[in-house]
Amino acid sequence: MTAEHIDIDSSSATHAQRRLRRNLALVIGVSFFHVFSLIMPVIVPIFESRGLDLGEILLLQAIFGFAVASLEVPSGYLSDLIGRKRTLLIGSVFYAFGTLLLYFSEGFGMLVAFELCMAVAVSLISGADLALLYDTELAIGGLQGRRPKAVRRLFLLDTLSAAAASVLASLFLALQSLEALIAIQAFVAWLPFVICFFVREPPRRVLGSRRHSENFALILRLVLTLSPLLRHAFLALAFWSLSVFFVVWLLQKQWQLQAIPLEYFGYLWACLSLVSAIAGQTSNLVKRVSSPWTRLGFIAFAPVVGYLGLAFFGPVVGFFAAILIFLARGLGIVLLRDAVNSRIPSEIRATVNSLANFGFRFAFTLLGPLVGFVFELGGMRITWLVVAIGSLALNIVFMLPLIFAVQARHEKPVRAIQLDTVRRVMRMAA
Question: Model pTM greater than 0.85?
Answer without folding.
Answer: no
